[in-house]
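User: quick one, sequence for these tokens?
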């Protein structure tokens, strides 16, 4: 039920709220979030003109990452389309999610993903366990001093409620 609260926030007027909601959905697995995430990675000019789709790059990035936990044909197709997004960061997020879903790594090459998708019979046969992206950085000089706060690094983990991959 918490995932659905985040999905509702994907319709907020403020881009920062939509972005953080998409980031939150990365951490909670609920397949009912897929339609809203698919809409959130759509940057089609027509979709934006009709008040559908997402114009904010940060929201599209976070939504693309969140979709990496849903092995569905429509998700695969939407992520392939996102590889043609005008933002390289969205392309990289879509490629990362495609890697989790398929176990393959063709980077941001939409043509290679298209070719592979047409040749394979089971898109998700080699699926890799999804782990949401996190903030990581090395300690700075002052952070080696005892009692100085450490960097706020997180550890990647699978989302709550995500079924384990067998095999």
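Assistant:
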């Amino acid at each position: 039920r918490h995932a659905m609260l985040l999905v509702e926030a994907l319709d907020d007027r403020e881009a920062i709220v939509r972005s953080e909601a998409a980031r939150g959905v990365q951490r909670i697995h609920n397949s009912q979030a897929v339609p809203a995430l698919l809409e959130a990675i759509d940057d089609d000019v027509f979709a934006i003109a009709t008040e559908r789709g997402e114009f904010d790059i940060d929201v599209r990035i976070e939504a693309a990452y969140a979709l990496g936990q849903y092995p569905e044909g429509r998700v695969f197709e939407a992520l392939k389309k996102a590889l043609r997004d005008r933002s390289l960061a969205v392309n990289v997020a879509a490629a990362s999610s495609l890697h989790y879903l398929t176990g393959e790594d063709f980077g941001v090459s939409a043509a290679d993903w298209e070719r592979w998708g047409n040749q394979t019979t089971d898109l998700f046969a080699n699926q890799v366990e999804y782990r949401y992206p996190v903030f990581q950085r090395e300690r700075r000089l002052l952070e080696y001093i005892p009692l100085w706060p450490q960097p706020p690094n997180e550890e990647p983990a699978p989302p709550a409620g995500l079924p384990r991959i067998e095999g």
